[in-house]
């Protein structure tokens, strides 16, 4: 099935998102606040400029918080203006995101200093969490068991360093990296020092890789601290992902599990950037917001 919509169909998608028959009735109180990451607008290490339009639109739609690459925040901090930008739009920073290298011995020594440096930037601007993704690699040439011990040791050390700065820290599994599959996630999280290493999964990436995100969230519920919430359709845009409610992920079931967490304040909606997408970043965020409103979630006014 082709879940991709064009700009002409945008209003119809919003209507479907709000339709009474589209979702089950959920009477339970919704406690989690919904934030948004800046990824859709293209802000990335070495490409920090889109942070300003991202915050303007995230704030304008009433999301409660934002997340960005920690290096983007650091770049803005170095040049000046980040505090004024956050204050101008009134949307707080929840978390930063960065990559640690767990397979290259020459780069391992840099992981802890990098973690401390970026954690200080995130904390300076009010964030409370630093998400780490492990490095990408050629999966066809990769033997997880050869690197398992190093991965766990590095994540433990980085998380302890981040905690010492005053932030939480958690692993974000990611497609095409050294921790991608269901078995790899369980192997790492069941062996890591979970006093320091918590879990920050992306539910659509789990689904895209053949893992049941609802089951994994239930299994690691006590360790959930930061969530990337998106949907997966397998289409040509947004790396196969899509706005909430337009793909295959059971978002209502995901949110029901997350509402049982004692530690989650925010869940961060995310969507990958895309060349020539059928919807603007603002429109995709608007569509996801409409879907979540049907689930009972409130936004800032």
What does the model show?
By secondary structure, the chain is α/β, with parallel strands linked by helices. The chain has one domain: Divalent-metal-dependent TIM barrel enzymes (TIM Barrel). The chain has helices spanning 10-18, 51-60, 70-79, 82-89, 105-108, 111-124, 144-165, 182-189, 203-208, 213-219, 251-258, 281-294; strands at residues 33-37, 66-69, 93-100, 129-134, 168-171, 197-199, 228-229, 231-232, 241-242, 266-269. The strands form two sheets. Strands 6-5-4-3-2-1-10-7 form an eight-stranded parallel beta sheet. It has a two-stranded antiparallel sheet with strand order 8-9. Helix 3 (70-79) packs across helix 6, helix 6 (111-124) runs parallel beside helix 7 and helix 7 (144-165) crosses helix 8.
Short description:
With 301 residues, the protein is α/β, with parallel strands linked by helices. The protein contains twelve helices and ten strands. It has a single domain, classed as Alpha-Beta Barrel (TIM Barrel), CATH 3.20.20.
């Amino acid at each position: 099935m082709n879940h991709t919509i064009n700009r002409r169909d945008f209003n119809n998608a919003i209507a479907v998102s709000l339709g009474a028959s589209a979702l089950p009735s959920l009477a339970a109180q919704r406690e989690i606040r919904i934030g948004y990451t800046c990824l859709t607008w293209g802000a990335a290490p070495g490409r920090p400029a889109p942070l300003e339009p991202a915050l303007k639109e995230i704030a304008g739609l009433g999301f409660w918080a934002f997340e960005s690459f920690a290096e983007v925040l650091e770049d803005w901090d170095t040049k000046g203006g980040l505090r004024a930008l956050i204050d101008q739009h009134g949307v707080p920073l929840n978390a930063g995101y960065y990559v640690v290298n767990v397979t290259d011995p020459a780069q391992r020594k840099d992981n802890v200093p990098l973690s401390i440096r970026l954690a200080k930037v995130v904390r300076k601007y009010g964030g409370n969490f630093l998400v780490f993704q492990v490095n990408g690699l050629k999966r066809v040439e990769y033997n997880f068991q050869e690197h398992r011990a190093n991965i766990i040791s590095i994540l433990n050390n980085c998380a302890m360093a981040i905690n010492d700065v005053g932030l939480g820290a958690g692993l974000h599994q990611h497609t095409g990296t050294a921790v991608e599959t269901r078995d790899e996630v369980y192997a790492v999280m069941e062996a890591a020092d979970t006093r320091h290493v918590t879990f920050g999964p992306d539910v659509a990436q789990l689904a895209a890789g053949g893992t049941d995100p609802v089951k994994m969230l239930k299994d690691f519920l006590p360790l959930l601290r930061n969530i990337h919430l998106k949907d997966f359709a397998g289409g040509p845009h947004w790396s196969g992902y899509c706005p909430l409610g337009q793909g295959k992920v059971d978002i209502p079931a995901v949110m029901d599990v997350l509402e049982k967490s004692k530690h989650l304040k925010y869940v961060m909606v995310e969507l990958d950037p895309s060349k020539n997408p059928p919807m603007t970043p603002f429109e995709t965020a608007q569509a996801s917001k409409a879907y979540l409103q049907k689930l009972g979630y409130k936004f800032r006014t």
